[in-house]
Here is the input.
Amino acid sequence: MATLSDSLVSSSARRLPIRVRPDLSAKKQRYLGKTYWIVKDPVGLKYYRFQEEEFAILHMLDGTLSLDEIKNRFQKEFPPQKITLEELSQFIGSLHRSGLILTGMHDQGYQLYERAVSRRRKEILGAMSNILSIRFKGIDPERILNAMYPFTAWIFHPFTMFLSLVMMVSALLLVLTNFDTFYSKLPAFQQFFTPVNGLWLAVILGMTKVVHEFGHGLTCKHFGGECHEMGVMILVLTPCLYCNVSDSWMLPSKWRRAAIGFAGIFVEVWLAAFATFIWWYSNPGLLHNICLNIMFISSVSTIIFNANPLLRYDGYYVLSDLMEIPNMRQKATSILSRKAGEWFLGLEYPDDPFLPQRNQALFAIYAVASACYKWIVTFSITMFLLQVFKPYGLEILGMMIVAMSLVGLVVMPLVKVIKFFYVPGRLEKVKKLRFYLSLCVFLGFLAFLFFVKLPYCIFTPVEIQYEHGDTVYVHIPGTLGEVFVKPGDLVKKDQELAVLFDWDLDLNIQKLDREVKRLETQLAHLPALSKDDPSAEAQIPVVQKALGAAREDLAKRLEDRKRLVIRATRAGVVVPPPLVKKIERDGMLPKWHGTPFQTRNLGAFMSTGEAFCIIGDPQKMKATLVVTQSQKDFIQRGQRVEVNLNECPFRIFEGETTDVATEELKVVSARLSNKNKGEVSTITDQDGTEKPQIPSYKVDVPLDNSEGLMEVGLTGQAKIHAEPQTLAFRLWRLIAETFNFKI
Here is the structure.
């Protein structure tokens, strides 16, 4: 209770009933060549970084000194620096809000309660705005980690680390050197994200994250740190663990701090590498699918989330440690906010010694990139969940997740902007001229974005074909016996191209020929026999009918034998048909593959309807474009097209669209398939044909080949000059094509 003598003394000369918490621990460290003190709050598991001057003031708060005494002692210990009583009061207030000091003043319990309620409210609001990643505090794993470490210490031996790196590099080389085979063995989206496999994905995600977090915890123990918090995190609607290793801030070495942050990434990459070898050498089955799921979870989550410094996961903390800038994202956002205020509002900010003074433009760019990437990742995940929920009629659940995600992406930033201008006196500091100029530029940019149409082009894969080429098919099945032409030969109409043999057909013809002769002989003798045997006369109509049927059957078989000779349907140049892929069939002899002109296929059996060759005019070619449904909506007849072939990269061929198909494309040329390094995503049918994964259509563009530079089968890319479109439309179309989900 204040006495009369106390009331006669100025407030700055009175003893401060404030003292530093006795349970705090501190360690001296160096960041960017400067000395700092890291203070640990063992109750809240929070860590604070103070400069030497700030740390000195913190320890002066022993409950016996006044503000004047603290000021004088500070200026005596750190000359020639000066500090005002106002600055000192503000700093002590920040220490009190952080819970680092104790005071015996009245109503402190109520204030602490209000602060706890406010903090809890912010945590709930933050969880609601980040519905895809929610944390629930759990246990103190210190005893568990202490028990595990003696049995896992060998993992941190340099030789073990070396072997792990060798395995990771080997797995990467295995994938790169066999990428085509690797890609062809991957299932399609609908095959991979089935309900059963979705459960496996959830289980494996949870298990990999458990191993991931124990990797953080054990690495922290290895370097002498502590871990006092491990709980449950709901990551993309899947429960898994999280481990709080903030105690790494107490380690003086930035490399050890970075190693603790990188440990989870290392564990997941190790799991992905190990699973890659098992998946590659195992047969299709449960183990095969589990390893594929591990590869997907560990690699995708590492690249998109953990290792990416644009999100506040492991990669962010590793970069923050190596750059020696704690709270890097908050500081980058603060720099961006200050720069935006200076440029667009004319606000003047005092120097902030806690912000990086060098490369501030890079930090501002980082803040923008981080925000954009967070938008992209959140949008991708929510659209993916909508696609997963749709078959079960749970779109409403997906829409709720989208709405709650928008709270963090849209509502929270708007609230911060409103609070920014709500500060008393903030609007008076805004320079009106610069504000109105910035507003005009912004509105002009929006007008340009939404209303000004610019030239618009569509890029599609293309294959060269004859404009009026005829495909010569096999009409009668048989064995390929002899081929009279080769690709590039000029042929005339009805010229023999090849001969097929059918021994069964020849035997059938011989049998029918003998049958016809027998019936003819029998019919010739029946009139004479009828004189002696009246019943013979009744057989004459029967034999005549049988003879007619036999002659008709023989004529058909002879016609079939003629059709075994494959002839040109028109005059022109011969080119091979699309390649036939080799298909392994269990328990059956393999079919021919390649083209009929290859020597190995002589003696192969060809079925009815199989293409033997294509004949056309080499002077008249056409580019066959494969376009998607979204592209087809902007393509019309008469639009200018530029074609660039892979074999002629420095030559552009021009033409106009003439025929835009209305029926969906059923089969895609193997040359355009992504399985043969093409650009069209395809699925291989049971008979070996390639079918487009998404609805696609054919567009024809006639081309002049008077120079003879084009050949059938060449591939490349076409640029269609469509109607001009606005930049806003292009941006929306890019998003729609990138995230190919229908809501």
Notes: Residues 592 and 600 are 9 Å apart (CA to CA). The mean pLDDT is 82. The chain has four domains: 4-106, 125-324, 458-468+617-725, 473-606. The first helix runs from residue 4 to 7.
